[in-house]
């Protein structure tokens, strides 16, 4: 239990210490009007209170990623917990802060527009395609996963029998509604209530396992195991662990979600709490599920068997009901189910807004919102027919590759303004090496090259990208300032 509490304390300390450093480096301006005020439209640009914006941001980014990923990552042993803490503080929360605050500074722009501004039009077009693909994969994952869990819950706990297909249709119907209605009608109104259920799930599970007479928290593990690969299936820790645990440590999906709340945040001073803080909250959720997975089953071999016999969803079901009984298990299980649903709807919403920006189509009218949204849902429905395991593998890689693009974008911004760019450049180099090494070495998704060669190419490519970003960003501070003033002028004129 001491390990878990130490990790949680480190995350909270990271928020107050390193988060303050990141905020100072960015340089907030409390007098600057945010897009929520300069571009209010009653649909996507709607001022909301800070607690509400925080809870919506947390639920937007916390899908099944900080649950399924840490469960799968737990197969590597306590090393997964170390990556969650280090990755969350120095990479994930920093990534989320800059993705949100750069959107605030750019009139609530989506991530492809921001990337294009600081890395060029080629990067913008690449990110438009990549972000849409990622969000579609997220939408599909966050339809299939909750549909499967709800179906399993109803069929196992009641006399009623429902089909997976029927549940997919119901969730899709909700997504369509949530994607096109104003942000404050469903998302802003009900998500804070879902947040309360999420808190119950998190606190309830850890309290139950801490006082359980059958399960010892992290029993049998030593401190040295934090730096050891204990995977019973002999899976390599590098670079797979850093792809497996995405949303609990760093996730490119968050870069697509942060602009949603950048359009609703009332003051720049709230950015650290909303963006950096929400990622810290997700890191704690990831720690809880990693700890539960490492403790509930007694051994990594038993955990591996549970995953093999029903995936991480089976781990969630077994732990929820095993620790909290039927009533508490249902509440905790529903708390887990809500996470992907509250991220799936905003994934499609983000897709709609990215397409609208690309085609220059205003989104005040319902007709225009439907024109952008319906093709996305048709593609999403088709993708639900693909094997979930395949979708999840591609989602994991696409997710981290998107995070890499956002980190390099943030580095370009900091370089332009002669600020300490290493806070984003170092995690960018690391995650770029992870992604390139993974795709070169992986047999199922990539090229199946030897690990040593893949790693050398990954590191070399990362350094080459760093040189390129530094070169194109040098001496553009004055141009950047003029562009910023023009963006703000247009935003005020539009309002």
Automatic annotation (TrEMBL):
It is a multi-pass membrane protein. The chain crosses the membrane at residues 67-93, 126-150, 162-183, 190-211, 235-253, 273-297, 317-342, 370-391, 397-415, 422-441, 447-469. Its main location: membrane. One of its GO terms (cellular component) is plasma membrane. One of its GO terms (biological process) is cellular response to starvation. Residues 5-143, 153-293, 326-436 form the CstA N-terminal domain. It comes from the Bacteria. Keywords: Cell membrane, Membrane, Transmembrane, Transmembrane helix. This is Carbon starvation protein CstA. Belongs to the peptide transporter carbon starvation (CstA) (TC 2.A.114) family.
């Amino acid at each position: 239990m001491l390990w878990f509490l130490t990790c949680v304390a480190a995350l909270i300390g990271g928020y107050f210490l390193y988060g303050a450093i990141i905020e100072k480096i960015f340089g907030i301006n409390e007098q600057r009007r945010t897009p929520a005020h300069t571009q209010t439209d009653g649909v996507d640009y709607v001022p909301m209170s800070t607690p509400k914006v925080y809870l919506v941001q947390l639920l937007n980014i916390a899908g099944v990623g900080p649950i399924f990923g840490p469960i799968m990552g737990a197969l590597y042993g306590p090393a997964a917990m170390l990556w969650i803490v280090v990755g969350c503080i120095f990479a994930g929360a920093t990534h989320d802060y800059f993705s949100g605050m750069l959107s605030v500074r750019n009139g609530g722009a989506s991530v492809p527009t921001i990337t294009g501004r600081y890395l060029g039009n080629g990067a913008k077009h690449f990110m438009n395609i990549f972000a849409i693909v990622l969000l579609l994969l997220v939408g599909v994952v966050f339809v299939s996963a909750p549909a499967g869990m709800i179906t399993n819950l109803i069929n196992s706990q009641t006399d009623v029998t429902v089909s997976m297909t029927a549940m997919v249709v119901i969730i899709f119907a909700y997504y369509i509604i949530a994607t096109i209605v104003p942000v404050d009608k469903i998302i802003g109104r009900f998500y804070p209530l879902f947040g309360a259920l999420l808190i119950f799930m998190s606190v309830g599970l850890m309290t139950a396992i801490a006082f359980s007479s059958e399960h010892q928290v992290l029993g049998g593990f030593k401190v040295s195991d934090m730096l050891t690969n204990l995977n019973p299936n002999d899976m390599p820790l590098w670079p797979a662990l850093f792809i497996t645990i995405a949303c609990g440590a760093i996730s490119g999906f968050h870069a697509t979600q942060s602009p949603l709340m950048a359009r609703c945040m009332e003051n720049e001073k709230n950015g650290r709490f909303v963006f950096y803080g929400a990622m810290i909250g997700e890191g704690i959720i990831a720690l809880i599920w990693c700890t539960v997975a490492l403790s509930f089953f007694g051994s990594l071999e038993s955990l591996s068997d549970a995953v093999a016999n029903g995936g991480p969803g089976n781990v969630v079901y077994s732990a929820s009901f095993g620790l909290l009984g039927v009533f508490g298990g249902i509440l905790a299980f529903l708390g887990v189910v809500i996470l992907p649903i509250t991220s799936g709807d905003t994934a499609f919403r983000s897709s709609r807004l990215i397409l609208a920006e690309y085609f220059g189509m205003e989104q005040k009218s319902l007709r225009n919102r439907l024109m952008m949204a319906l093709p996305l849902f048709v593609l999403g429905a088709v993708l639900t027919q693909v094997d979930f395991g395949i979708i999840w593998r591609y989602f994991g890689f696409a997710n981290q590759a998107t995070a890499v693009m956002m980190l390099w974008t943030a580095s370009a911004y900091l370089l332009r303004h002669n600020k300490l760019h290493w806070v984003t450049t170092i995690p960018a180099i690391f995650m770029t090496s992870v992604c390139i090494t993974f795709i070169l070495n992986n047999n199922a998704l990539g090229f199946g090259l030897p690990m040593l060669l893949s790693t050398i190419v990954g590191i070399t490519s990362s350094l080459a990208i760093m040189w390129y970003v530094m070169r194109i960003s040098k001496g553009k501070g004055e141009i950047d300032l003029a562009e910023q003033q023009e963006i703000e002028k247009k935003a005020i004129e539009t309002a």
